[in-house]
Amino acid sequence: MPTFGVALKHQMRECVLSLFWRRADLYRFFLQCQVPTASLSLVKDWEEKNLARVSIIDLLFDSLDRRSDHGTVHFEIILGELVTWQDFDSYWFIQGNLDSVMARATGTKVVRSKVGCPPSPDGDARP
Q: By the 8 A CB rule, do 27 and 43 touch?
């Protein structure tokens, strides 16, 4: 079973950050992606621990990496959700907390990384 490389996981992290503003929504996303309870328990009390969004993702990704299968199944589920994401009309995009153009570009980078495409010559996120 292949493992997920550092570059792809970094792109996934950036994509997740571009899609979710509230930590509760971030947590719910990982719950829906079937991240194991043991991993989710590390961040369940994010408010008491004052965890930033990026810290939540890093803790979960590190926890998945430490599994005997390196979290491959769970990373595949997360990746599948990210590459098919279509909801750019949420309140957080409309209010300007999140940028739908940047989120789409970040999603495109994840897709390119997944299929092994090099970045475009001018550095943009064209497929």
A: yes
Question: Are the C-beta atoms of residues 59 and 42 closer than 8 Å to each other?
Answer: yes
Instruction: Kindly state whether residue 125 falls inside one of the protein's structural domains.
Output: no
pLDDT tens across 83-108, in order? 888 877 777 777 777 777 778 777 77
Cβ(55)–Cβ(27) below 8 Å: no
Residue 20's contacts (CB-CB under 8 Å, 6 or more residues apart) are 26, 29, 53, 92, 98
pTM above 0.85, yes or no: no
Give the separation between CA 38 and CA 66, rounded to whole angstroms. Answer: 12
Beta carbons of 102 and 18 less than 8 angstroms apart: yes
Domain with 100 in it: 6-115
